[in-house]
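lol ok so funny story. i was supposed to be doing the assay writeup but got distracted and ended up predicting the structure for this chain instead. priorities right. anyway since i did it might as well share w the group, maybe its usefull for someone
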Amino acid sequence: MKVLIIGSGGREHVLAWKISRNPEVKEIYCAPGNGGIAQIAQCVDIGVMDFEKQVAFAKEKQIDLTIVAMDDPLVGGAVDAFEAAGLKAFGPRANAAVLEGSKAFSKDLMKKYKIPTAGYENFDDPKEALQYLETAKFPIVLKADGLALGKGVLICQNLQEARDGVKTIMEDKQFGSAGNRLVIEEFMTGREVSVLSFVDGKTVKTMTSAQDHKRAMDGDQGLNTGGMGTFSPSPFYTKEVDEFCQKYIYQATVDAMAAEGRPFVGIIFFGLMLTEEGPKVLEYNARFGDPEAQVVLPRMKNDMIEVVEACMEGRLDQIDLQFEDNAAVCVVLASDGYPVKYEKGFPIHGLENFTDKDGYYVFHAGTKATPEGIVTNGGRVLGVTAKGADLKQARANAYEAVKWIDFENKYCRSDIGKAIDEV
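and the output, tada:
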């Protein structure tokens, strides 16, 4: 079997690693890939939005299955392009990927189908947004409608911050066309939990829970990032919470998308807030989270290809999804200055320390292979993941493994998973 993965980050590396464990998979390609992926797959210099070249490559190499792992190509219609060419591709079509591609769409969907979420209003005109804020309750949340690399969310403590936020998103276009529309949402308090799920259009099978750390600095300070680390499972995601979410959020979302004529086949990431009134949806993503995938997939017992094919063939209900009875923690090693300004091109030392170490992994995100070795090539550089019998052990193992790697400008948060101390 030949598999092509579309993407270049840590999520794509863990996917390639997971797929490589299937003995029937003979060749893995990744477009464009990164320095770490290059060690287990053949990286192809094709951009994630160049569907024409991707399809031509898949035909030339007789690819059996393409996995579109990133948000931009999914929302842009990569799966539609492969299907139009008679090729198999895993992920939602563009009309279903809008669940992530437009926050306004997803909020309206939740309102229509009574899926629990925060109160909100959508705006196309910055003047109307500013007028609305005059009578709003603070703190309040501003969200760019479109894709913004996980950074298009501003939490505003007062009216002046909110006014500045409207200008940043809608007028200054800091997040590009993602800010053409704005969602203003009530601020929810509680524990955040991420739940990834496989979906075949009608059936939803959830994976083990996880929790991300979005802010750049310790104590959840600083700017929003693509994610600075994760742990799995979340001790706050109880059996009672799961039962509620299965009925009123997960299945309700899949049913709603089907009812709208947008059947969803692929991965739905449910970002949840566990409020005093019960679980509510913070956001949807139409693909694996990054770095959530780095703690969830190493704990998954099932073969990835088997589950993906069940989704595509509408028989997910026949899969018994199983996870190891342990825990995992991922600490992201970033370039100092991320997510604003940072240097790259620094040699990375110590990657060989992870070879043949059971339960320890290093997944590459912003790296590049050069004749001199692997160098930094992005804001989030590596995800260091470790397993343990429980969360505290996994956390200790992950931070020990962080010491095995060094590069100039290396930065990471020191408090990933600290919330588990409160349990």
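The chain is about 30% helix and 30% strand. The two ends are 45 Å apart (CA to CA).
back to the writeup now i swear
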